Amino acid sequence: MATDTITNPAISGGTPKSKVFKNFIDGEWVESASGKTFEDINPADTREVVAIFQESNKEDVDAAVDAAKRAFAKWRLVPAPRRAEMVFRAAEILIERKEDHARDMTREMGKVLKETRGDVQEAIDAAYYNAGEGRRLFGPTVPSELPNKFAMAVRQPIGVCGMITPWNFPMAISSWKLLPAIVCGNTCVIKPAQDTPLSTFNLVQALTDAGVPRGVINVVAGFGPEVGTPLTEHRDVRAISLTGSSAVGRIVGQIAAKSFKHCSLELGGKNPMIVLDDANLELAVEGGLWGAFGTTGQRCTATSRILVQKGVYRKFVDDFVARAKKIKVGNGLDESVEMGPAVNQRQLDTDLKYIEIGKNEGAKLVTGGNRLDKGDYKHGFFVEPTVFIDVDPKMQIAQEEIFGPVVSIIPCEGLEDAIAIANNIEYGLSSSLYTRDVNKAFAAVRDLETGITYINAPTIGAEVHLPFGGTKATGNGHREGGIGAIDFYTEWKAVYVDYSDTLQRAQIDRPE
Length: 512
Description:
Elements: E1 19-20, E2 23-25, E3 28-30, E4 37-41, E5 49-54, H1 58-75, H2 80-109, H3 113-133, E6 141-143, E7 149-157, E8 160-164, H4 172-183, E9 187-191, H5 197-209, E10 217-219, H6 224-233, E11 237-243, H7 246-258, E12 262-266, E13 271-275, H8 281-293, E14 303-309, H9 313-324, H10 345-361, E15 364-367, E16 371-372, E17 382-383, E18 386-389, H11 396-399, E19 406-412, H12 415-423, E20 427-428, E21 430-434, H13 438-447, E22 452-455, E23 471-472, H14 482-488, E24 490-498
Parallel strand pairs: 1-5, 8-9, 8-11, 9-10, 11-12, 13-14, 13-21, 14-19, 18-19, 21-22
Antiparallel strand pairs: 2-3, 4-5, 6-7, 7-24, 15-18, 16-17, 20-23
Helix pairs in contact: 1-6, 2-3, 2-5, 3-4, 8-9
C-alpha cells in the first residue's frame, strides 16, 4: 500500500485534540458499519477528548478478517528477511516519533511521561528484536535413522491472527503481538483496548509507513462483545492472542477451543516481592515503591504483595510508608508527577472497593486510601498511593488482583515461609526476592511458582527478548516476547527427503 493513502487518518474538520479515526481495513481508513463512534477520554482530565474512534461490530470484523485472509496468500510468500526489514524500518520511524507518541499515550492512558516514553521504547526494542528473528526462524535438522535420507523441521505461518490488547501498555503489548506475527508471515486483525486505541493506531501507522502491504495489518476499534467476541469466533481466524483479565481469558479460551484455534492468554497476577533480613533495605524500599505504584499499580506484574522477614519488618515498613506518602500524584504530562490517575471510573471504583475490603478485613491502613477529587484532581480519576500492613495472606486484598496503587505488606518468618505464602495464590506471573545470599536466590528461582522471577529488583521490568507470561490462572502456557512469541505464531512442519531411490520404511527396515 502506498504510504500517502494514510498520511492523515483523521477526518477533516476535527481539532488537534479530537481527531476522528476510522478503522484501518485492507489498507484503507473506513467508517464502521454501525455508524457509531466513541470518545477516547483523558483520565487525568475528563474534559479532554483525546480522539474519537469507530464503535465497530461484527460486520467490520468480517471485513477485516476477509482482507487479512486475502493478504495472507501473498504475504506468506514474502521472504522472512524482507518482512523483517519493514519491521526494522518501523523501529526507525518510531524513534523519530517517540515523544509525540508518548504524549499521546499519557493523554489517553494517564501514566507519567517517563513511563509512556518507556512504553514506546519497548515497541522499538520489540521491532529491532523481531527484525533480527526474520533472519533466523530456526528449525532443527536431525540425522535420519535410515541411510540416504534427510530430516528437518521448518516453521510456517498460521494464517490470520486475531489480537485483543489491554489499555495499560497500549503500544508495547500491541507490538508484542503484531511484530512477531507478521515477521513469521501471518496477517493480523487487532482490536485495541477501548480506553487506549490511539497508541495502537500510532504503531500501525509506523508499520504502514515502513512498507507493510495492505491487508497485512487491520485495526478494528470498539468493545469486547461487539468486536472481541466475533473476532474470537470467526472461523478464518486461526490464532487468537489476548492480554486481559483471567475472567475474560476463560471465555476466550473456551470459544477458541471450539474451532481448535491456537490461543495465547496472558492474564492476571498477584505478584509477591520477598525481602529477607540480609537485603539491602534501601534498595528494596526503592524497588517496592516502583513495583507497587509505577503505572498507578495498573500492571499485571505490579508488586501487590510485599513479604518481609520479621527481623527487618518494622524498619522496612517505616521507610516504605514514609516514602509512599511523598509520591506526587497528578497529570502525567507534568514531568514532576510520579503517579498518574486510574484509567477510568470503573478502575477507580475497583480501587476504592478493595480499600474498603481491606479495612473491613482488619488490615492496618497506614497511608492513602482516599480518592483525590479537589482542585487539580477534580476532573480526573485519582486515588492516593495506599499501603496496608500486618496483612494476613488469606485476606482478599492479599489474594485478589486489584490493578491499582494498593499494596499489602505481609510479615514472614524466612525464605521457606515466604515462598509458601507467595505460592498460595491462584496466579503465577511474576515474583522477586531481595537478598545478598546467592544460595537463597537460586532456591527462590527454583521454588517460586511464577513465569518470571527477579533477584534484587521489583516484580516489574521485563525485557522483550525473553519469554513473558506465567503459570496457573495467569495464562494457558504460551509466552509472549522472545522465542516464545515465535513459537506461538508458527506451525512446525517436519520434512523428510529420501534420496535413496528405494522404498525405506521407518522403524521397519533396520539393518541386522
